[in-house]
Amino acid sequence: MTDDPLLSIRDLHTVFNTDEGVVRAVDGVSFDVDRGETVCLVGESGSGKTVTGESITRLLRMPPGEITDGEIVFDGQDLTTLSDEAMRDLRGDRIAHVFQNPQGALNPVYTVGWQIVEAVKLHEDVSRKTARDRAVDLLDRVGIPEATRRFDDYPHEFSGGMKQRVSIAMALATNPDLLIADEPTTALDVTIQNQILGLLSDLQAEFDMSILLITHDLGVVAEVADRVVVMYAGKVMERGGVFDVFERPAHPYTRALLDCLPGRGDGTSSIGGRLPPPTDPPDGCRFHPRCAHAVDACRQGDQPADTPVDGDEDHVVSCVHYEPGGDPSVVRGDGDAVAAEDTHAPDGGTSTDEEVTGR
């Protein structure tokens, strides 16, 4: 088996051409997903997480969406070069998706069993009986009681948590190598959320698959991630192992997100201001209008280059204070929450704890 990452994204740019201008939803994003690991994309709503996930398998509506630059290398093959037909064969087969709203992923006029059978037969030349047996087995594995009987039930006969389990079963129908899970637990209560997260972890070990989990809930990240990619306004602010990012957060935005978690910060933390307009992002670091540590260098040029944190090549940050000649202690000195002054947010808006943690 090769040591190369299963998924390697390099300098990905995805835009939407709108009447208001070009929306730079994903603007130079790079990260890897190794075989068998869980990588979490985290950030506020509007940071570009979902568009990144949908760019991988071209689920975007094109037009107005368009991948303008970059590489998406999956198991040695650049997906940006594939034809639409080849991408359809790959999507749902080796790469599968689970979405936030299971009701939207399931067709209400067909039984859940029929839908899983069709997912199997779409990618494999097997008999309907073989596909049915696999569907029942998958329903049982994801924790649907009396799977044989419930095979013939319709989506409306399942609770929200059970619908999500069915969606996961459908995604696993072809034993994918990579599962992209976009906010799969946000619409569920805490008890069901924990069950779904435990289920994903168990199935990952059983099927030896990689997971790219898209979430704004840092509590979820702490539970399941091997590595974390922190996104803001279409850019990657920081990426590294989950322990390093949580214990040694380097970017002011990462620190601000973590200070919104219960038990960290002063308990009332929020991030002042709002995301910049995607059609007119600021020069320099995208986060500088909301950052208490911003200096002139933060407001000029392009987003700062990725710099290793304390010499660790696996933990990098995009911040001028970590560049040669910079002083990281400016950011890391006392661990206080980052909060922008009112002048940074003329509309008075803030990102609340609920937006950041989902709780």
TrEMBL record:
ABC transporter domain span: 7-258
Cleaved signal peptide residues: none
Pfam family, one: ABC_tran
Any one cellular-component term (Gene Ontology): plasma membrane
Membrane topology: Peripheral membrane protein
Major site of localization recorded for this protein: membrane
Molecular function as annotated in GO: ABC-type nickel transporter activity; ATP binding
CDD domains per record: ABC_NikE_OppD_transporters
Catalytic activity, reaction form: Ni(2+)(out) + ATP + H2O = Ni(2+)(in) + ADP + phosphate + H(+)
Coiled-coil region: none
Region Disordered, annotated ranges: 320-359
Superkingdom to which the source organism belongs: Archaea
InterPro entries reported in the protein's UniProt record: AAA+_ATPase (IPR003593), ABC_Ni/Peptide_Import (IPR050388), ABC_transporter-like_ATP-bd (IPR003439), ABC_transporter-like_CS (IPR017871), Oligopep_ABC_C (IPR013563), P-loop_NTPase (IPR027417)
Entry EC number(s): 7.2.2.11
Keyword Transport recorded: yes
Keyword vocabulary terms for this entry: ATP-binding, Cell membrane, Ion transport, Membrane, Nucleotide-binding, Translocase, Transport
TM helices/strands, residue ranges: none
Subcellular location(s) per record: Cell membrane
UniProt subunit comment: The complex is composed of two ATP-binding proteins (NikD and NikE), two transmembrane proteins (NikB and NikC) and a solute-binding protein (NikA).
Record-given protein name: Nickel import system ATP-binding protein NikD
Organism encoding this protein: Haloplanus litoreus
